[in-house]
Amino acid sequence: MSFSQNVKEEIEKHISASRHCRIAEMAAYTVNFGQEDPEGRYFSWQSEKEAVLRKVFTLLEKTYNIDSVIEDTTAKDMKNKAEHIYRITLTMEDEIRKVLQSIRFSEIKDKKVSALLLKNDCCRRAFLRGNFLCLGSMSNPAKSYHMEFVCSSRMQAQQIVDMIGTFRIEAKITERKHHFVVYIKEGEAIVDLLNIMGAHISLMNLENLRIVKEVRSSVNRRVNCETANISKTIHAASRQMEDIIYLRDHYGLNRLPEHLKEMAQVRLEHEDASLKELGEYLDPPVGKSGVNHRLRKLTEMAEELRK
Q1: Dihedral over Cα of 123, 128, 133, 139: its sign
Q2: Model confidence over 187-218: pLDDT tens digits?
Q3: How far is CA 23 from the centre of its chain?
Q4: Average pLDDT for 177-188
């Protein structure tokens, strides 16, 4: 099971304690998958996502005391592949009226629900939870951080962005194949939104993955830095050896001032030593800056001699 599916499975099991929150969540399912008969004979929720219909079934029972049945309709496409469509249908007028009036169905426009249902933080949490179950998905956080809601209208996408924004989380909208996609790409923001939607187990799993990734990144940065420093040190030592050998062969180390002669001899004897180690070999010992100054002087002399 993918990480995204785990989040949805956890969200499906989350039932709000307050009736007004359950109504806000029910509005999300109705906006996305509700279908009204033009003649008013029935109202149904229909989707290939079984988890959505299970949640609608639970909310109808707990919020409206309505018993319903999930129908599994299997259709076959042109390639003879079975496609499951799940449906809940209400046919009693008083039950339909009870549900549609509570979610202010008559005010829904371009799949945007009434703002009166989303006045409280808890209701906005439930609304986002429902929309993620209907429209949301997440990439594998071990590879990248990406959460999105694929909406069919810009108004719906903007409402989701606005609801997320009330929790001080920034989400953006992009168009993709005639859809409006609300997306978040920052790991910390995704963690916050999982917390808001009540997906606490998924949140902890994501945090563990983030810690592992950050540790790996930190180790890689250190290794790269140390590798670069080692490479730089080796290159500098190699160049110093070349300059000292050139001075020895074309000028003579005995003609150098005593402190430079000693420095040249120590470098020739300890090719792989660091500046600190070279300084400790000198008599008396010299610090890194003093060693660096002497080696630079030898390099300058070699360059002058080459000219």
Answers
A1: negative
A2: 899 999 999 999 999 988 888 887 877 777 77
A3: 30
A4: 93
pTM above 0.85, yes or no: no
Report the distance separating Cα 101 and Cα 89, nearest Å.
17
Report the DSSP pairing between strands 43-47 and 34-36: antiparallel
CA distances from 168 to 79, 118, 171 (A): 47, 16, 10
Cis peptide upstream of residue 285 (ω within 30 degrees of 0): no
Mean pLDDT calculated for residue range 110-133: 94
Dihedral, CA atoms, 32, 38, 42, 48, nearest 10 degrees?
A: -30
Domain range summary for the chain, segments of one domain joined by +: 3-198, 214-306
Is 266:282 a contact under the CB 8 Å cutoff?
yes
Round to whole Å and give the CA distance between 14 and 196.
12
Please tell me the CATH superfamily of domain 3-198, with its number: Homing endonucleases (3.10.28.10)
Q: Please give the radius of gyration of the chain, using alpha carbons only, rounded to the nearest integer.
A: 35
Express each pLDDT in 24-77 by its tens digit: 999 999 999 999 888 878 999 999 999 999 999 999 999 999 999 999 887 655
What does residue 239 show for φ and ψ, rounded to 5 degrees? -65, -40
**Structural tokens at position 24:** 């806000």
Neighbours of 165 (CB within 10 A): 11
Q: What is the mean pLDDT of residues 108-113?
A: 87
